[in-house]
Amino acid sequence: MRASIAIALTAATAVSAVCNSSYNVPTSGTCFTGCNVEAGNVFLPGWTMDPASDKFIPSLKLMCSKGTPQYTAFMSKAGMCMMKCSDPQELFNNEFAGACGWYAEHKDDVCTESKGDTPAEGAANKLEISGLAMALVAGAGYLAL
């Protein structure tokens, strides 16, 4: 029964997460991304280029906020690592420009359970998701009997 409830809650959580769905910037590849993640984790544990993560916006803030000491340190550390990458530098340049352009438009976005265009719509979505979670838990409990 506990396993059924855990599965149901995991499914409900997966259904309810809505984070940065408009981000569609092509990746620069594993080497450049790995360098960014390595450098980013020094300044922000959990630094990521995963738009589904709640740490995505703070990660882009570190990467895109020019003129700050953290930006300079991050770019220096990532850049030293990137010198070892064999992929064309243009891949990173394109991702950086796209990611920071997206960040400039979306830096105040919040990773939430649901997003609605109006407060009433957002509340309705939360109720719908809560209802789904309850139905999944109730169904899991029934099946466990």
UniProtKB/TrEMBL annotation:
Signal peptide: 1-17
Keywords tagged on the record: Signal
Protein name: Secreted protein
Organism in which the protein naturally occurs: Thamnidium elegans
